[in-house]
Amino acid sequence: QVQLVESGGGLVQAGGSLRLSCAASGFALPINVMGWYRQAPGKQREFVATISSGNYLNYAESVKGRFTISGDIPKNTVYLQMNSLKPEDTAIYYCYALTRANHWGQGTQVTVSS
After folding, report:
1. Of 42, 64, 70, 74, which has the fewest Cβ atoms less than 10 A away?
2. pLDDT, tens digit, for every residue of 71-94?
3. What single DSSP character describes residue 63?
4. Are the CB atoms for 110 and 91 separated by under 8 Å?
5. pLDDT value at residue 40
């Protein structure tokens, strides 16, 4: 059974840091890309950052310079270090993996208080 399990969310004050982790398991096909998306209340899910099997990194403009994605695709793990958090970063953060299809975790809540 394919699973993406996130951890590391929580409540933090503006300017603080959090580190999200995601572990994937049960994949029969190799994962090509892993990353993070987020969905704030009343908004659509949006791209945050991804890392490819070739270690190509991609970031949303809104998080560049503040968030750092890292991971080991062959080991099916990905992390998101979030620094200088802002209240507008408050959202449910979803782990993402791409094989021939898109796969999503259940999400972890990140709340940034002002």
Report:
1. 42
2. 999 999 999 999 999 999 999 999
3. T
4. yes
5. 97
